[in-house]
Amino acid sequence: MAALKVGVLLSGRGSNLQALLDAAAAARYPAKIVVAISNRADAPGLDRARRALVPAETLPHRAFHDREAFDRALDAALAKHGVEFVCLAGFMRLLTPWFVDRWRDRLINIHPSLLPAFKGLEPQAQALAAGVRVSGCTVHFVRNDVDSGPIILQAAVPVIDGDNRDTLAARILEAEHRAYPLALRLIAEGRVRIEGERVAVAGIGASGILMSPGGR
Ligand code: GAR
Q: What is the average per-residue pLDDT within 12-29?
């Protein structure tokens, strides 16, 4: 089966893009990253794409008079590269309903909390403030409400006494780097079905919850 053509949208560091690029470099990985697009020209993630010989594009949001104009340009850029599926990887722009509906069920995001807990900004700090003992990350299909949509998989990590925002974020990030490539693999293999607003993953069973550190 031909590899699923994936576009990655990002705004910054791009470590999740890197995890996807690394996974996709393996011969048997069922998806290929065909373009990385940032709304910020200085996003370090763009260099990660270039180093992997993946086209990297900038679409400065300030150049557009409104959100939908930006999203239409984004859609055109994705189409130009033959993108079939979109991964948000630290893309810090709200997408319009026009874009979200156009890419419905072909658009996923990773968020550094166990959704539906701690939506929005600084979820790691929110987790610390709430005093939870377990946090993690969530890979989910994107819907119009922020940080909501059918959950594909989650990875849990412990919150350790003495953690600060950075130590917890680093632990969650490690889990993200395993979870995102796995979620994309499951989708590209055709094992992910959306039923109502819940996801069924063929052949993964209870390991839809990953523990980290630990196995996959
Ligand atoms: C990641 O932790 C990702 O989960 C988060 O931004 C970071 C991007 O890091 N995304 C969100 O908070 C989206 N709501 P990266 O640029 O190194 O992949």
A: 97
